[in-house]
Design a protein that fits this description.
Helix content is 57%, strand content 6%. By secondary structure, the chain is α+β, with helices and mostly antiparallel strands.
Length: 563
């Protein structure tokens, strides 16, 4: 290492200390590997398997929306990630847990450096203490992001830094920001969050023109480049939605949003304080009080923190927009305009974490400058928030609540035994699962008639409903869940409700399963992989073939043949 490099590290020692803390935060993935506890909801029950089966399908690149036979006897290729999704290629090159770990590492480091660059270059004064610039960036990087989102939420500060740099320097913007601009779409989801980000950048571009009476063409080129990349990335989804008359998605029958005004109002404040499961900023107990204290302090000191007020009110508005998107009053419009019904405009709330942590940094600067003992309070607050978030790493968080590890959840050895017992090529028969997520079977190479995906043929949903209709009739909540959304094509059991994790320590038998096995047979169903015994199996033409168990697996699987 040269003296210049060493000097640079010393100069930015606090920044590199933050990197070391992030690596410590990530260490369970590297140390435990498949024995790491991971989030199940919208992660191991879905995206992890989608990436794996796509990587193994031989259908990553297709010009047309071909059908993949591993699920529902033909899942449209457009229902799975784009071939231009960088995470797909991580799953091609590495084992799933390794790909997952690399993705997490990229996410955290991008969040950290993105927020740091944004704060130091555009939000805070150059002489701001690294306690705030590094501390806030570190806390932001350790948020419990939706793991499969990659840079969809965590990368927004980096994207904002890129656009603000191009906006400021125009054609003289440094090359590295254009490199970031090109890379970000490969690691992020346009429909989930960046459609809103790009839209807001477009509004900013227009506002600049109105104010300055001059077009910023470099900024416009950046907008066009990012938008074009997302459109190319999502070519399969776009062609299936707008140019394939033979495909009607189940999303056409989405019927969400019947909350009362009172419930919508409550939900707005819940989101404002506690966030959404996919974008938790953990703002309620430290960040919001600190912002309020900073605002009162600013009033007392006759300071006008316009940006802080704007950001705080913006998140309040976004929370109300999110909550009232599900208000029953919207149904009149949703029932008439398809795109309003099928596209979730409430997802703009995924911008919340970025807004909260920029506001947090500004509030801390005010306290540092104007409060008596403010420096000590700021340091204490940053340490408290960082420690709180550090222990929310997946392995600790989900280990404490008894979630299976990656290895336990998918239990490859157990399901290999089941495949060997059946003794046929998995492509020659079809299975469904009861008491566990069907993606577990998919991960292990089974071809399933049940699934969890963002889009699939509406006709298949109707046919599958015939299998579980009697169980849905026994549970109004399950019936409403399936009929109004239906993204989870599961073998619902009224006795189970929306619980799909019946491990062998809690596998009480189903007393009365009312499914239409004839309809299941017509769909091609041959076997049921049940995590619990079915007491009335004989009455509904199910024959117990065998029971499977493995000492390292949390599952006890009852294999029933549909006769």
């Amino acid at each position: 290492m040269s003296y210049k490099q060493f000097s640079n590290i010393i100069q930015h020692k606090w920044l590199w200390l933050g990197v070391l803390i992030i690596l410590a935060y990530l260490s369970p993935y590297f140390i435990n590997g498949e024995n790491t506890h991971l989030r199940i909801h919208d992660n191991m029950d879905s995206n992890v398997v989608w990436y794996k089966v796509l990587a193994e399908s031989g259908k990553i690149f297709t010009l047309q929306d071909v059908m993949l036979p591993y699920a529902i006897d033909g899942l449209p290729r457009s229902a799975l990630p784009s071939p231009f999704d960088a995470v797909v290629w991580l799953y091609v090159l590495f084992e799933p847990i390794t790909a997952y770990t690399i993705s997490q590492t990229i996410m955290r480091l991008a969040a950290y450096f993105g927020m740091y660059l944004l704060l130091t270059r555009f939000v805070l004064a150059k002489d701001t203490t690294p306690w705030i610039t590094v501390g806030v960036s570190l806390a932001f990087a350790m948020l419990p992001y939706w793991p499969s989102g990659a840079l969809s939420i965590a990368g927004i500060p980096l994207a904002l830094y890129v656009f603000l740099t191009i906006r400021k320097y125009k054609s003289e913007a440094p090359k590295h920001v254009w490199v970031f601009l090109v890379i970000i779409p490969f690691f992020s989801n346009f429909i989930l969050s960046f459609v809103f980000f790009v839209g807001l950048m477009g509004v900013l571009w227009l506002v600049d023109y109105i104010r300055q009476k001059e077009w910023n063409w470099s900024f416009f080129k950046a907008l066009c480049l990012m938008t074009s990349m997302y459109l190319v990335k999502n070519y399969l989804l776009i062609t299936s939605m707008f140019f394939d008359s033979n495909f009607t998605s189940h999303r056409e029958e989405l019927d969400l949003g019947y909350n009362s005004f009172e419930r919508s109002y409550e939900l707005a404040w819940e989101n404002f304080l506690y966030g959404h499961t996919h974008d938790e900023a953990h703002q309620a107990y430290i960040i919001v009080p600190i912002i309020l204290f900073a605002l009162f302090l600013a009033i007392f000191k006759k300071v006008q923190p316009k940006l802080l007020i704007t950001l705080f009110l913006s998140n309040l508005i976004l929370s109300f927009w999110y909550a009232f998107w599900y208000w029953e009053g919207w149904r009149l419009i949703k029932d008439e305009i398809s795109i309003v019904n099928t596209f979730n405009f409430a997802r703009i709330h995924f911008l919340d974490p970025t807004i909260w942590y920029i506001a947090f940094a500004i509030a801390l600067v005010i306290i540092w400058k104007y409060a008596k003992l403010g420096k000590y309070l700021v340091i204490l607050v940053l340490i408290a928030q960082s420690l709180y978030l550090f222990v929310l790493t997946e392995d600790i968080k989900y280990g404490e609540v008894g979630t299976p590890t990656f290895n336990e959840f998918y239990s490859e050895e157990l399901f290999t035994e089941i495949k060997q017992y059946i003794g046929e090529d998995p492509s020659s028969y079809r299975v469904v699962s009861i008491g566990m997520h069907p993606t577990i079977a998919q991960y292990n190479g089974f071809y399933t008639l049940d699934t969890y995906n963002n889009s699939f043929p509406l006709e298949y949903k109707h046919n599958f409903r015939e299998v579980i209709a009697d169980e849905l009739d026994k549970s109004p909540s399950l019936k409403n869940y399936f009929d109004t959304w239906g993204g989870r094509l599961y073998m619902y059991v009224a006795e189970h409700g929306e619980n799909y994790m019946f491990t062998k320590d809690r596998n009480e038998p189903i007393q009365q399963l009312d499914i239409n096995t004839e309809a299941l047979k017509n769909l091609g169903g041959d076997y049921i992989l049940s995590a619990v015994p079915i007491n009335n199996a004989d009455e509904i033409n199910l024959e117990l073939e065998n029971r499977f168990e493995h000492e390292d697996s949390p599952w006890e699987i009852y294999l029933y043949q549909v006769s």
